[in-house]
Amino acid sequence: MTIQWVAVASFLYAEIGLILIFCLPFIPPQRWQKIFSFSVWGKIASFWNKAFLTIIILLIVLFLDAVREVRKYSSAHAVEKGTATKPGTFEHTQMKLFRSQRNLYISGFSLFFWLVLRRLVTLITQLAKEMSNKGVLQSQAENTNKAAKKFMEENEKLKWILKSHGKDDGNVLEKENKKLVEDQAKLKTELKKTSEALSKAQNDVITMKMQSERLSKEYDQLLREHAELQNRSEKVNKKGQ
After folding, report:
1. Helix crossing, 87-164 with 39-82: angle to 10°?
2. CA pair distance 106, 108, nearest whole angstrom
3. CB-based contacts of 66: which residues, under 8 Å, 6+ apart?
4. Within 13 Å, how many C-alpha atoms sit on residue 110's CB side?
5. Is 36:122 a contact under the CB 8 Å cutoff?
6. 114 phi/psi in degrees, rounded to 5
7. Torsions phi, psi of 38, nearest 5?
8. How far apart (Å, rounded) are the C-alpha atoms in residues 222 and 109?
9. What is the pTM of this model?
10. Is the dihedral angle over the CA atoms 191, 193, 197, 203 positive or is it negative?
11. φ, ψ at 23 (rounded to 5°)
12. Model confidence over 9-23: pLDDT tens digits?
């Protein structure tokens, strides 16, 4: 294996390791959000997009080169198989064919996992933000409920005081009740808005969780296919040697 393909294979293993770490269930999204918010990431943020696009272009070039090699040796393999050539030449061509196929899978999976890794980081960041917003909205809803209960208790207490002292003046009580009813209506409106925002945040969290689970399942399937293809490649290399 040449240096460039060793580098691509190492890059693929690093991607698999990072995706496995991101999928660990005992590390919450908030912890990843804190890690992503380190100052060092802000310093390299200006170079991140350029580096991301550069790596994609390199992987695409290597993938297309691997496709070309596979087509080249596939046609040569078919020609040598249909003609009476030397057995050593046929085995040599077959070995090159399987090596080019191995390179094709390595570059293809590296390109795919690079895109998956970018998407996974974005989803983790969004999920952490939504969970933080959910906590804030729940706190606001609790405070609004407490304030509404407090106003209702004060209203009942005011009624009882006025009645107990024989000063149940209709105008005074009506004004106080009107003010309390207006405050209560405002609090109910605010509570309704807060509840709607909380419901929306919960739906967003559920949607992102489903997307994360789907990506995890696709990753497991691709990992099994990669292991199977790697085992086949190793068997062919051993056979060629």
Report:
1. 150
2. 6
3. 100, 103, 104, 106, 107, 108
4. 28
5. no
6. -65, -40
7. -60, 155
8. 8
9. 0.52
10. positive
11. -90, 0
12. 898 899 888 888 888
